[in-house]
Write a structure and sequence with these properties.
Elements (H helix, E strand, L loop, with lengths): L2 H13 L11 H11 L2 H19 L5 H19 L5 H27 L7 H43 L9
Helix pairs in contact: 1-2, 1-6, 2-3, 2-4, 2-5, 2-6, 3-4, 4-5, 5-6
């Protein structure tokens, strides 16, 4: 396992606790990044633990469960990226809008399913999604930014370390 990748995940986790615009967090980027760079089980546990720590610190609500489901799917998408031959950060950037949309759809479904804010009917579901649209802009922008930073930064750091290492690639272990 790469210590550089683990350091990027730790930094991304810490960023989640700093002041930030509403819905602009690195969690979707962390899920894609972890899925791409770590074994599947470890990536899933790391991503869900990151989300859980934040949820405990900020207040747990039942509706968050669907967010966890979406993060599991995004980790799986990251694992699919591992098999791609294209540059990791460009492929991840292309996968980001779908990942953001999955998180938006499932987490808002959780809000609706909880039944406290919207009636549990078709009109309530539509109202829930419509009410969430203004928050999606920040989420998508944040996801694109954090994916670019995590994947692009990781690629830059690993290439720099490989150039400095007397034995190619040994600095990454």
């Amino acid at each position: 396992m790469s210590w550089v990748a683990l350091a990027f995940v730790a930094a991304g986790t810490l960023v989640r606790f700093l002041p930030h615009p509403m819905n602009m967090t690195p969690i979707v980027a962390l899920a894609l990044f972890s899925g791409r760079h770590f074994p599947a089980r470890f990536a899933l546990v790391l991503t869900l633990a990151t989300m859980l720590i934040g949820d405990i610190a900020k207040g747990w609500v039942v509706q968050n469960l669907m967010g966890y489901v979406s993060l599991g799917l995004i980790v799986a998408a990251g694992a699919v990226l591992r098999r791609r031959r294209a540059t990791a950060w460009t492929t991840a950037l292309a996968a980001t809008p779908a990942s953001s949309l999955a998180f938006f759809l499932l987490s808002n479904f959780g809000v609706w399913l909880e039944g406290r804010l919207y009636p549990l009917d078709q009109q309530g579901l539509i109202a829930c999604y419509v009410a969430g649209v203004p928050f999606f802009r920040n989420q998508l922008l944040g996801d694109l930014l954090f994916v670019a930073v995590l994947f692009g930064g990781f690629q830059w750091v690993t290439r720099s370390l490989e150039k400095m290492s007397p034995i190619r690639g040994s600095a990454l272990r």
